[in-house]
Specification:
The complex is a heterotetramer.
Chain A: E1 6-15, E2 18-28, E3 32-36, H1 43-51, E4 58-63, H2 73-76, E5 81-84, H3 96-107, H4 111-124, H5 140-152, E6 158-162, H6 170-186, E7 190-194, H7 198-204, E8 207-212, E9 215-221, H8 222-225, E10 228-238, H9 241-250, E11 254-257, E12 262-266, H10 274-284, E13 287-295, H11 298-306
Parallel strand pairs in A: 3-7, 3-8, 5-6, 6-7
Antiparallel strand pairs in A: 1-2, 1-4, 8-9, 10-12, 10-13, 11-12
Helix pairs in contact in A: 3-4, 4-5, 5-6, 9-10
Chain B: H1 23-35, H2 39-68, H3 79-90, H4 93-126, H5 128-133, H6 139-172, H7 177-210, H8 214-239, H9 249-260, H10 272-300
Helix pairs in contact in B: 1-6, 2-3, 2-4, 2-6, 4-6, 4-7, 4-8, 6-7, 7-8, 7-10, 9-10
Chain C: E1 5-14, E2 17-27, E3 31-35, H1 42-50, E4 57-62, H2 71-75, E5 77-80, H3 92-102, H4 107-120, H5 136-148, E6 154-158, H6 166-181, E7 185-189, H7 193-199, E8 202-207, E9 210-216, H8 217-223, E10 229-235, H9 238-247, E11 251-257, E12 262-267, H10 270-284, E13 288-292, H11 298-306
Parallel strand pairs in C: 3-7, 3-8, 5-6, 6-7
Antiparallel strand pairs in C: 1-2, 1-4, 8-9, 10-12, 10-13, 11-12
Helix pairs in contact in C: 3-4, 4-5, 5-6, 9-10
The chains are: A alpha/beta, B mainly alpha, C alpha/beta, D mainly alpha.
Chain lengths: 332, 301, 307, 279
Amino acid sequence: MSESVISIRNMVKCYGAVRALDGFDLDVPPGPVGLLGPNGSGKTTLLKLLLGLLAPTEGEATVLGYSPTQRLDRLSVRTVVGYMPEGDCVLPGMSAIELVSTLARITGLRNEDAMTRAHEVLDYVQLDEERYRPIDGYSTGMKQRLKLAQALAHDPQLLLLDEPTNGLDPKGRRQMLDLVEDLGRTQGKNILLCSHLLQDVERTCDHVVVLNEGRVVEQGAVSALTAAKGALLLVEVEGDPARFIKQLCAAGLETITGGDGELRIQWPDATPDADRVFELAQQAGVVITQLRQQRSSLEDVFLRAVGAKAPAGSESEPSDSTGNSTLLKRQP
Amino acid sequence: MRASTHTEIYRPFTGSLREHPHRWLTIGASSVRQGFKRKLPALLLFTPVAIGCVIACFRVYFRFQLLSGELVNINSPGAAGITMMVTETLGDVVANIITYTQSMAFFSLMIVAWYGAGLIAEDRRLGANLLYFSRPISRLDYLLGKGSGTFAFGFLALTLPCLLVCSVAAFTSPEWSFLIEEWPSILKVILFSGIWVSTITLLVLTISSLVGRKSHALIGIIGTIVLSGGVSAVLSHLLRENAFSLLNLFENFERLGEWMFDRWDSDREVTIGQTLAALGGFWAICLLTLAARVRKLEVVA
Amino acid sequence: MKPIIKATALSRWYGEVIGLNDLNVEIQPGITGLLGPNGAGKSTFMKLLVGEMRPSSGSLEVLGHTPFANLELYGQLGFCPQQDALYDHMSGLQFVTHCMRLAGHNHTDAKAAASRALQRVNLQNAMNRPVSGYSKGMRQRTKLAQAFAHTPKLIIADEPLTGLDPVARHQVLELYRELGESGTSLVISSHVLHEVQSLTQRIVLIHRGRLLAQGSVEDIRQLLSSHPRKVHLKARDPRALARALLELPHVNSTTLKEDTGDLHVETRDIQAFHADLPALASRTRSGIESLESSDASLDAVFDYLVG
Amino acid sequence: MLHFIQSAWLLSRLQMRSLLFSRRIIFCLLLAIAPIVIAWFAGAHQHASETVPFIGMFLVLQVIAPLISLTVGSSVVTEELENRTITYIFTRPTDRAAFFVGRLLASTVVSSILIALSSLGVIWAATYPREGMANLTRVRKRRGANEMVEIVRDLPDDLAVGLLTAATVAAVMYTLISAGLGVFFKRAMILSLAYTFAVEGFLANIPGSTQKLSVQFYLRSLFSDSHEMEASILSKIPILSEATAYTSSEALARLGVAYLICLLIGAFGIRKRQYLMTS
């Protein structure tokens, strides 16, 4: 694995008594990385530190060879880092093309480069003829894409995206996710993506870091973290499952029926053979509509890492609405 | 539902960044361009300045024409009387320029206030500070940029018309006599208007950094001017103590103008030292507040 | 059952911006998801429901009342607004007690009901601290507590899930499920579709100010016959499976994704496909690992309708 | 009716608490202290019977009282509207008029207390005996030797009472005006500032019967009618001489009627109006 994009050593940041970042080491690999954590876990503080806007109480960090915690690199690090803020932010009274070209010029591009680059980047985020209109007429989706465009203006090697899909409607969210996925996977840009919507992170990131109360509590490749543990098959059946269950038990496969007619077949060895299940279903004259291996989702990983119990005891899909033991009684 | 590959091709940027890109110049230029986008306020604010400047130029022009005598043929009866009366009303050229500068001070304040009030306030309200400070600019760049933007408007409103009047005076004066004899006072006029513009720029930006919206900033500026004038008047009246007139910005500049163009009438109770100290104090307060507010603006980013 | 909300030819516009445009909808008791892209008129509809605005034309009945400034209705209605606005200097308990006192209860029952509600939202140890110190999730749960403290018949929640982290989102969803089960009707507007789908199957889809679709996700999907159903298959030997599948008459197309080895199959008749699959699978022995039809998900339905 | 009073009382307590913790109140305190400081300085130079009417009339009644009550009064409706907490109240089965009346009561109490204290402070500062009086005698000498003898330390007490009543009435009236404007218009603060300093400033200061339309006129009659003004500077200004047309009781009656009408308009207005909270 090539050298890490961001390496942090013993990072501590205190706001008075509150220890926003509680001394941790972190090596962020290249490519798209998700940064997860409940509200107030230190994500925004970390981003500001990487941008050199905040000085840490202790520890230092190196980003792409620059060290934003030192005075001299504090500004120059921002020439190679692009930041997409979370809230609404716009330069007053400007249209999209003016905003992106002005910000590009401020970063250091020459005038003619800034204008051509602005058009290129706005084409990329599909802000076509709206780029000449003032921004207050934009929809939330267009504003988010504009923010992404201004972060890309100086072609940074590292992109810091803070909640890019927050508050977007499904169409806007899909467009934004396509852009982030294309940047991360196809264009090979390093991305640090902060988000609460774990489906989005699962879809766009390869590596994940989970922060909680200022410390790194979990990190690893997404595929590894959500790998299937043990051979548990989830099968949804139409019609009467009873005969099918008898068949399965006859074949020595222990089966439990979940709440909404979902069967959980425990496979003796690690490699489940679905064809066998289909054969049994055919003999039982039963129709299978869903069959998948039990994999914990990123949400379960997150909930386990942050210490809140996953709902309904077993590591089921987040959308399992049959949660018999509700969270209400338990302390968060 | 996996995402289909993205058809848009992302082209990496091949150009290079400039070594010392004068970032504050870009910010200043963009604020000026933003200002002149809306034509109506520009028209409304700059017409009185233009009219004042034209009048001053004509006064100076006639003044010199009369001196050279082309305007009124000498041998007609009573010509001497008319020329004497007219020259007497027109007054000395330099005095003309100084009165022009002081009369335009108020208009230039309005122009600088209108264009400068929103520069920092609207940035904070709309979150533009997040965008500015995620770029490699220091707080000084930001301040210099906003300051230069506002100063440019003040320059257009006051210093440029003064220069125009001086140049008209120089051209019409016989054999450039105005330029040769009076060039120090031209420099003084430029310096005086420069100081006035930079002071009101500082005032406008400080108030703009304290409030959340352009309209509040405008109210704040007008409020400060009126209040400082009113309070100093009431206090000096009530307490018969003229030191309070130091609070009033306009009076300070009147005294400064008189001192610079050595028309200082000696029986003024407030000395020039106190005036300069008052101005220095005002500048210090403004710069300190601005520094503190912009530091807060950056961290909020 | 009598519908809790009945809108007939309801429209509302501000200047030339159209909020709702001749909306006719009836919402039955129970949990209903109110969906629609940004600017479709969802928040306008919510404001009309809560009586914050009067309709420009048409009529609206909530629990049999016309909602604008209708004191009788507000006794049975709970509203959880979208904005994150609370009285920061008050504590959670004081805030909910204050709301209950305004509803006409005396101090003791108001305080009792408030602490019960706050316990139910899991804020018992934080309820005496001022709200300014609460996290986003806690503020959301406090807003919800004031909405159901007076056990209303109907609770309306505007975007309750945006900006919450997964932990808080789970707790809020559990809470809604519990309220739904206890008989309170709920109308929830949200963009986080998979969360809404985990809560209820009944949705009302508004687009450009009009009702686009109403009913359960599955029924709506059936109606969209023009769109072929998509099924995803993972197998050890996807090419053999693909060849076999193409022989089935109702399969339109199969696309193979080389990077992930997924097989996307489009079929005209999903029941026939499911019926034929077991036989085909045992015959070809191509080692199917998973069979998923993500087509019935709310995301897909939303895409087909809104595009 | 009981529920109306109960919720009004509840909301006024809430407004009282949020006012006392807000930045507005610091601004009001500064405004309240200003005339006291000026009166203190002026006390060293002028006789109390001259400073109190001057500061009372020009500073307290025309500037400080309206400013304080506008700041406090304009927050009655707009504050909750702006930070969007109004939804919790407007979706409760309470009469919206109770919301208006309750918060108005709290604001009026706060502004009248502040202004009453400020006027008391002015009177106290002006009459406080200090060694500074020595140079006062020197000033007197130039204007006529005998005047030095009758330096009267205390103030005619009806002048003090006059100032207090006028100031409190000013507080009550202007708080209602700004609250009423808050019900109907978005930018209540700016509108009420415009009304008080532009419209009233204009109406009250041109001679003629239009003065009767402005609150200032009645405040002046309240203040100047309460004591013979022969020695003080007020009688020298022509506009003010017409102020004595009404006795203080007549002025109070007219202001009372105006107050009731405005209160009713506000109460009905808040019930009917739709408050759109722009996102």
